[in-house]
Amino acid sequence: MPEPDQVRPADHTGFFTYRNPDDYHPDWAGFYDDALRRRDDVRRRLSHDVALKYGEHPFQLANVYHPENATAAPVIVYFHGGRWREGHPDHYDHFAEPWVEAGAVFISCGYRLEPEYTIGDSIDDAMRAVTWAAANAARFGGDPTRITVAGHSAGGHLAAMLTMTDWDQTPLPENGAMTGAVCMSPPTDLRVRMLEGPEAARYSPALRVTKAPAHVVVSFGEPEPNKKAQDEHFFADQGRLLVAALTDKGASPVTVTMPHTDHVATAAAFADTSSDLFTAARSAIFANGER
């Protein structure tokens, strides 16, 4: 059992995408290298509290960036991608900049990863992270009743599982609420070239939508190249499955399609103020309290 005070370092040199660049269309190695440089720059300029622990495991980390002197700001809880096998919250800290400048609290969260743990453990951690965020939002000037759960790829899957299914019946603290979801390029039916066995359906949000927050954005590239052995329309197909399932339940998700955008760029668009994704996400995050 890890020591409670242990913190997982942000070392991406062992990631599969970093060690096997020829297997991918996007430059994941360059993304990770640049991300840590940009993280350091953002930390010099934004108010932050990092390497906070929402649990005892070294992967259960939360990096918080917040506007100075904020009160009742909307809260974004962001989960990174990496096929539930790689990624670290530090690699996405630079995404905080435009959101903090817009007036939101941005929390980049890590979670336990395969193969040592299961996707189910990742989902449990994500729920625990959001519960922690609701309990602690006011410390950073955030409003615990205005939490948007966001994520890219595997992180988009976690956002969907938390906000749209009955995975965990444990409520947030009494003063907390998930009011929005931004699911970027999420795998939503894990039976499709992802998993085998009974757990595949259990981990598939498109197969078990029971609810939806008031404001949902689903985004993907069309096509969206990532691994060279993967169908470039995979993420679009998976995103549309989730949109259809939500629509069947009476929800009205906003769909953002990004033509000819690779899997790195569909994540980066979340922090690009000129992108259609940023515009849609901003409307969802700041709904019922636009600055």
Topology (elements, then pairings):
Layout: H1 16-19, H2 28-45, E1 47-53, E2 61-66, E3 73-79, H3 96-102, E4 105-109, H4 119-136, E5 142-152, H5 154-164, E6 178-184, H6 199-202, E7 215-222, H7 234-248, E8 254-259, H8 263-268, H9 276-285
Parallel strand pairs: 3-4, 3-5, 5-6, 6-7, 7-8
Antiparallel strand pairs: 1-2, 2-4
Helix pairs in contact: 4-5
Characterization of this structure:
By secondary structure, the chain is of the alpha/beta class. It has nine helices and eight strands. It has helices at 16-19, 28-45, 96-102, 119-136, 154-164, 199-202, 234-248, 263-268, 276-285; strands spanning 47-53, 61-66, 73-79, 105-109, 142-152, 178-184, 215-222, 254-259. Strands 1-2-4-3-5-6-7-8 form an eight-stranded mixed sheet, sandwiched between helices. It is globular, with a radius of gyration of 17 Å. The termini are far apart. The mean pLDDT is 95.
Structural class: alpha/beta
| Cα shape | globular
Q: Give the DSSP E fraction (strand runs of 2 or more residues).
A: 15-25%
Number of helices: 9
Task: Compute the number of strand runs.
Answer: 8
Q: What kind of sheet is the major sheet?
A: 8 strands, mixed
**Mean pLDDT rating:** 95
Quaternary structure = single chain
Q: Tell me the helix content.
A: 25-40%
